[in-house]
Each structure stands twice: as C-alpha cells, then as structure tokens.
Amino acid sequence: MNNMNIKQGDKVVVLSGKDKGKVGEVLVAMPKSGKVVVKDVNVCSCHTKPRRQGDEGGIIQKECPIYVSKVMLVCPKCDKPTRVGHTVKEIGGKNKSVRVCKKCGAEI
User: Do 90 and 81 touch, CB atoms closer than 8 A?
Assistant: First the structure.
C-alpha cells in the first residue's frame, strides 16, 4: 500500500467508526502500513509509569493510527470532502504529477 493520496498536513474527514464525521489535520502519514494519525481522532488512553525520578505517571490521551480508507481528503478551495485525481504538470522544465480535486478541479 505505497500509493497514498493523503499526506501530512492535509485536512481530512473521517468516514466510518466511532469518530465518524470529525474533521482534523493529518499529523503523521504511514504509507507502508496504509495508516494516518489525525489530530483529535481515535484518541486512546495510555497508562504510563514514571521511568525516572521526577517523571509523572498517569493516564495520557494520545491519537492512534487509523486506516487511510476510513478518511477522505477535504479540498482547501471548495471545502468539501473529495476524491483525489492526478494530472501531469510541467514545473521548471520537468513533468510532475500533481494532486487535483475531483469536484472543483483545483490543485491540492
């Protein structure tokens, strides 16, 4: 699963699961496992023990990864969830693949 259309910093909406409908920013993208970590989505409680003297233990809330298939990219221009298309654009004399919105055609 190396070909992901979602990258770090993208705005996404969750399509299924306990956090369905939530919108957040992608903090980490993991193409090898096909997962992403989204801010304030799929939050779990992690019980930690103090490791050094002076450290505090307790219950810490942190975001866990979710599958890419459960999120959809939100277009920055039309502000709607959309599929991602690809077009080839010439930048500086070289052909580059660019992500585009399927609804409005804007470059992402």
Answer: no
3-state DSSP: the chain helix, strand, coil percent, rounded to 5?
5, 50, 50
Residues 76, 94: Cα–Cα separation, whole Å: 25
- Upper half-sphere CA count for residue 82 (Cβ side, 13 Å): 22
Q: Which residues are 36's β-sheet partners?
A: 29, 66
d(CA 84, CA 72): 9
pLDDT tens digit sequence for 14-33: 999 999 999 999 999 999 99
Query: Which residues in the chain show pLDDT less than 50?
Result: 1
Question: Containing H/E element for 27?
Answer: strand 23-30
Model pTM score? 0.86
